[in-house]
Design brief:
Oligomer: single chain
CATH architecture of the largest domain: 2-Layer Sandwich
Strand order of the largest sheet: 7-6-5-8-9
CATH class of the largest domain: Alpha Beta
Structural class: alpha+beta
Length: 299
């Protein structure tokens, strides 16, 4: 009962911090407050030790303007193409500055719409004839007005131009769900792969090392849960992630594997925005040790 009340209060505080009341609060102070609410710990930015603290340090003190391309869902395609070629890009259907410019009738039977400047605004359309166009446009217009930077102070988002992008909806030939492979790299070295999927409508995950051994984090799965099979093209996926992570202290590369073809989803240098709650000590300790911060600030 008490725990539930505390969580409700914390949720309310976090919602308040996302409003304009907190827009002018300096980044360092804002992050210290939010960090305390989310992790129940004091944020040490002067001598960061944990993975979460190191992410917060990067957000505050390691700001390279050229990295802002990473969070722009349209511009990041150019980064991927430069590094790996266009073969890993999801086919592009359109890009627009305003919702009013989108001609829904001209779009294919299925597609995915999303804003280029935020997270969580994707609209998945499997059958255009069933799409609520009015609701879709209202959601996109609402998200175009948001600046995602203010939520967790990821400076990369601050100057991204709000647009709408439309890409091909990825579907396996047999109709099975597309798995989301989140590949974690530290200093250009792949360390582990987290696979996200839906099980009975619930978002679930399994975590593996690069040899596809199940890590302790998911070693306590129920006996009847089927372990995800190792992809035949795992080495190609690891190569893609490693190439994208070159020169970065930390990178999570999100990839899709559709009928044996690898597609780039997105990439982030701030996994969990530095507010990740670890449930197993082993993976947290490893992430702390793998994560080496730059020797100097770039701000």
């Amino acid at each position: 009962m008490i725990t539930s009340i505390i969580k409700t209060i914390e949720k309310g505080l976090l919602h308040l911090m996302a409003t304009r009341l907190f827009y002018k609060v300096p980044d360092r102070i804002y992050l210290q407050i939010r960090y305390r609410i989310r992790t129940h710990k004091k944020l040490n930015l002067d001598n960061p030790v944990s993975y979460n603290e190191k992410i917060q340090w990067l957000k505050m003190y390691y700001r390279k303007p050229e990295q802002s391309i990473f969070v722009d869902k349209y511009e990041v395609r150019k980064y991927v193409e430069e590094k790996l070629g266009s073969k890993y890009l999801i086919p592009l259907i359109g890009i627009w500055d305003k919702v009013a410019d989108i001609d829904i009738e001209s779009l294919p039977h299925s597609f995915i719409l999303k804003c280029t400047h935020d997270s969580g605004s994707s609209i998945k359309c499997t059958d255009k004839s069933q799409l609520n166009i009015r609701k879709t446009k209202r959601k996109l217009n609402k998200n175009l007005k948001k600046n995602y930077y203010y939520k967790c102070r990821e400076w990369l988002y601050k100057e991204v131009t709000p647009r709408i992008i439309c890409e091909k909806l990825l579907i396996n030939a047999d109709g099975s769900d597309i798995l989301d492979y989140k590949i974690f790299c530290f200093d250009g070295v792949v360390k582990f792969i987290r696979v996200k999927y839906f099980l009975d409508g619930v978002l679930s995950k399994q975590t593996f090392d690069t040899q596809w051994n199940l890590l302790e984090e998911t070693g306590m799965l129920k006996p009847d849960i089927e372990i995800i099979k190792k992809p035949e093209n795992l080495e190609e996926m690891l190569f893609v992630a490693k190439t994208l992570s070159d020169g970065l202290p930390m990178l999570r590369a999100d990839l899709y594997n559709v009928d044996g073809k690898v597609y780039f989803g997105e990439m982030t240098i701030y996994h969990g925005s530095g507010f990740t709650t670890m449930k197993f000590d082993e993976i947290e300790t490893k992430m702390n040790n793998w994560f080496t911060l730059p020797e100097s600030k770039s701000i």
